[in-house]
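Per your request, structure below.
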């Protein structure tokens, strides 16, 4: 009952006035039934409030879990980007090393051909 008093902002005099009207309208015989009905209504209201609070807590824990999962996903993406970045750098290094070796081999072959055919000017096509 203190919850109702605080909720409705009723003073002691107002509560006594309400009790007198209830006794006059319903009589003392119906007073226990009315009190029981009010108690049952208050209990149902309290249970409904508790259920709503439970649902809100469940929803907030699910949202928190989703937030934690998205944080973990972003951390995994960062780690994956670091790994793939290192792999790409390694592949680029290998490719540039391979290209420089290939260019060196081509220039050596050209030099060899030019040395074997001194009569043919460099860059000229030899016809048979």
């Amino acid at each position: 009952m203190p919850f109702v008093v605080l909720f409705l902002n009723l003073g002691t005099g107002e509560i006594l006035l309400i009790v007198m009207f209830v006794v006059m309208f319903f009589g003392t015989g119906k007073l226990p039934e009315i009190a029981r009905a009010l108690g049952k209504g208050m209990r149902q209201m309290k249970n409904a409030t508790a259920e709503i609070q439970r649902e809100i807590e469940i929803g907030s824990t699910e949202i928190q879990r989703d937030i934690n999962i998205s944080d973990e996903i972003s951390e995994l993406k960062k780690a994956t980007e670091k790994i793939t970045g290192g792999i790409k750098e390694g592949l680029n290094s290998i490719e540039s090393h391979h290209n420089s070796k290939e260019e060196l081999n081509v220039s050596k072959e050209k030099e060899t051909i030019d040395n074997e055919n001194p009569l043919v000017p460099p860059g000229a096509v030899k016809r048979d």
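The chain has a mean pLDDT of 78.

Regards,
D.
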